[in-house]
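Q: Please design a sequence for this.
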């Protein structure tokens, strides 16, 4: 292997030494040399020629095809690195910075947010209206819910139950159990036993005590935690006992129960980040931030599960329908997509969407930006594929992930009316406030 390296370097030195001399030329034919009065300036050594660089590249290619021997480098990457290291070291000694194997293309640096199509994925807090980054949405929503206790403790405790507990099945079981307690009180207001809930009861511990927010809910609707004696037992135990004020308003308990049953988790809504750009030849180029590709822990687990299922399916025959379902499942690996719509005047309307949102969401997004939002229009994907607003298709099922450029087109009847009115169909159709904030792509 060492001899092979020496042959490569010798070949490069030979081809970079410059023009040679014929052996048939006699020494006497040369003009006599005169001793110069001053030593001539030393010419800088030229770099290797294109032929030398091609020879080095061919040698590296041959190395990649060969199997590593017992001695020396143990992998193709290490062989290539060793050759390049020796050539660079030799080039440094000879004063030639442009050595073979050193003129590699530099990897592009990550551009700043000013060059990105969108700075990232952002969300809107439904309680405060604040715009949140992807990595801070859960913490900020938790803070907003806890602050809501000072104004409406019942609503805040209900939001806490549905939002802070991730296991939806366990939440449903606990909520149904609480509703059963309240139903018993409403149906039997004269019976005292239904107004008392034993905290150490097995059902209460397994279904309710383990959920965040349940204790705050009981206290908010009028229950008080007290110690009561137990017959045939030495020490007292804790109970939630409904107060007289709450018992006198059974309709309030019924309303709180309906609120608890109908509530949903508080989730931050995806911010569309609507932007309008001037006509640009870069309309189909998307430089997306890492937020569009990073996976959360839940998404990684889901991807691992899907891969495990795919390995099992490889051992059995698959029908066409099974293959189509697998292709659609592969498209679901993107969580977000950035979409642009080219309008008749060439301007670009841009927004951020979930990859699993339906096409109707894009139609609504475009319609909100139009001056005349009641006029029918069409959206065309690349290749002229028409996206129907009525179709129940998601963006990932249409191949519109992680980014896509679509074309706005008036409905045929609308286009005919526009031309009949003597106006141009390619005039601006956006709202004035959007045109005033138009940007350069």
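A: Design:
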């Amino acid at each position: 292997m060492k001899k092979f390296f020496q042959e490569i370097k010798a070949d490069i030195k030979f081809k970079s030494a410059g023009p040679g001399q014929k052996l048939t030329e006699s020494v006497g034919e040369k003009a006599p040399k005169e001793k110069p009065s001053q030593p001539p300036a030393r010419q800088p050594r030229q770099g290797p020629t294109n032929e030398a660089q091609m020879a080095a590249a061919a040698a590296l290619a041959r190395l990649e095809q060969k199997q590593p021997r017992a001695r020396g480098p143990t992998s193709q990457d290490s062989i290539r690195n060793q050759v390049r290291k020796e050539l660079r070291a030799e080039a440094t000694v000879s004063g030639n910075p442009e050595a073979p194997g050193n003129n590699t293309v530099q990897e592009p640096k990550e551009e700043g947010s000013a060059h990105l199509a969108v700075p990232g994925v952002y969300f809107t807090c439904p309680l405060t209206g604040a715009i949140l980054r992807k990595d801070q949405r859960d913490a900020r929503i938790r803070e907003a819910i806890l602050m809501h206790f000072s104004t409406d403790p019942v609503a805040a405790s209900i939001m806490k139950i549905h939002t802070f507990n991730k296991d939806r099945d366990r939440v449903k079981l606990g909520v149904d159990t609480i509703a059963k307690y309240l139903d018993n009180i409403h149906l039997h207001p004269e019976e005292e036993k239904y107004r008392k809930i034993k905290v150490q009861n097995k059902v209460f511990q397994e279904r309710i005590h383990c959920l965040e927010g349940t204790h705050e809910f009981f206290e908010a609707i009028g229950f008080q935690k007290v110690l009561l004696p137990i017959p045939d037992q030495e020490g007292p135990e804790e109970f939630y006992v409904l107060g007289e004020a709450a018992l006198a308003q059974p309709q309030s308990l019924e309303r709180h129960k309906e609120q608890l049953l109908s509530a949903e988790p508080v989730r931050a809504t995806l911010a569309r980040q609507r932007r309008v750009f001037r006509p640009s030849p870069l309309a189909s180029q998307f430089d997306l931030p890492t937020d569009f590709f990073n996976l959360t822990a839940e998404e990684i687990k889901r991807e691992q599960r899907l891969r495990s299922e795919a390995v099992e399916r490889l051992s059995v025959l698959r029908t066409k329908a099974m293959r189509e379902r697998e292709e659609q499942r592969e498209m679901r690996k993107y969580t977000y997509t950035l979409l642009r719509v080219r309008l008749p005047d060439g301007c670009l309307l841009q927004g951020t969407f979930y990859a699993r949102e339906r096409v109707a969401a894009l139609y609504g997004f475009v319609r909100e930006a139009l001056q005349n939002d009641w006029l029918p229009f069409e959206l065309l994907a690349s290749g002229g594929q028409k996206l129907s607003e009525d179709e129940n298709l998601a963006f990932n099922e249409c191949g519109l992930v992680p980014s896509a450029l679509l074309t706005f087109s008036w409905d045929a009847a609308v286009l005919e009316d526009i031309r009949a009115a003597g106006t141009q169909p390619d005039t601006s159709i956006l709202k004035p406030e959007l045109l005033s904030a138009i940007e350069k792509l």
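Q: Thanks. Anything notable?
A: The first helix runs from residue 2 to 15. The first strand starts at residue 122 and ends at 124.
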